Amino acid sequence: MESSPSALLKLLLPKTPSILKTALWHTLSMSPTASKWDVRTAITISILRDMIGPNSPPTTITKIQRLTTKDPPVKGKVWVSKVKLAVPEEDDVRQMLFKAIDDMGTGDEQWTKPDTRPLEAEWNGYRADARDDEPEPTDLSEKEKYDTMLKETSSKVTLLYFHGGAMYLMDPSTYRPTTSKLAKSSGGVVFNVRYRLSPQNPFPAALLDCFTAYLSLLSPPPDAFYDPVPAEQIVFGGDSAGGTCCTALLQLLLQIHRSTPTGQIPSVRFHGKDVQIPLPGGVALASPWLDITRSLPSIEDATVYDYLPPPSATEHKVYPACEAWPAKPPRAELYANTSALVHPLVSPLAAPDWSGSPPLFFSVGEEMLRDEDAVLAQRAVGQGVKVIWREFEAMPHCFAMLLEYLEGARVHVDEFGAFCRQVVEGKAAGVESNGVVIAAKSLKRKDVDVAKGLTSITEEEVKTYMQKGLERIRKKEARGEEEARAML
């Protein structure tokens, strides 16, 4: 997106009265967030609410994507080595995914079988000696940049990263400031994946890309310039919708393992080889989106510190028609057909079985997605999975990316990187489940019981909430169909 002074002035000038009001109320301690936030944070969140809230100017999906998927010039403390990998001749990976979808569903879900496309991604690493505004070297090939990047690593961590953006926004290039920090804190490198975006590519296109990315690390295609990465050195990482990708991919792998005879490691034919599919070393999640129906209580109740609009505020908001939306055939949700929204590979919160999973790391704020994250974390612990829970008081969704100047954001990055190092450096067996709540300003830490202290929401209540969320979306879909017929 544009970041020139004139563009920023154009954006902020109409918001001046709101900014001044927010600053005054906060300074006078008349704001409900005054005791937890500084003025800068209050103004930042206020602007975000205005930009994406129910009263924001209607914008087409096509225009939003055009603004959020630009590939800016590479500069600063990040190495970028781009890859584009050929499509495998075999169809085995697609068919393995489709079988898992069928086996895990009810049979009533409607979804479109995507084709396999060349995988696009970029290797990111921390470039220690670069100035913040220094451009990348122009005399190095992509392989040479990759090889130079590896020389700056201090661990064997490979973070397979899936970016956020509600499944229809953003590009991996937007995440370079984040992946650079994570590479530094973990001591390793990041494989930053460009998965297909909705609504043009609905479920399971993105999941197929994520699965292909994992296999491409385990067994690089012939046109790749990097070496195979052992599964135990790979950590899935992602924020928001990237957390959807992480947990859906993990659940896919668990299902493949469940469908394989005991004692055997599943495998698939990939670029002419039989490639084994072990589980990764761990999964690290930042504010993961686990329930596409957006139905648990915190979605409506935890709005004080968040900027995301709740479903009740956007129930009747529609995107103007464009090339990408409404989808053909029409549907209510961008990511998947309504009938598939509670499928475990669409909304991982619906997956009942996480036993056998590698260690999980959660970093969440006091945000609207907190309930679904807490339910899944507590469920996993109850099934024998090691879970590290870090909850940041009074922080909004994905706060460490948006409010990177806060000390809490630095703590998040440090904790994320420490988890990656711990599970990769042969210490996963020593990982013990633990939870910590971190205070907003003082950063004081308070232990929380991850086995029974994260949430009181029962499994039956989760099912009820998700069914109610599904019904809400079905009604929205029905209204849209009625409006469409009225226009004929």
Automatic annotation (TrEMBL):
Annotated keywords: Hydrolase
In this record, what's one Pfam family?
Answer: Abhydrolase_3
Which Gene3D superfamilies does the entry mention? Answer: alpha/beta hydrolase
Chain ranges of the Alpha/beta hydrolase fold-3 domain:
159-400
Molecular function (Gene Ontology), one example: hydrolase activity
In terms of superkingdom, the source organism counts as Eukaryota
Q: What is this protein called?
A: Acetyl-hydrolase
Q: Which organism is it from?
A: Paraphoma chrysanthemicola
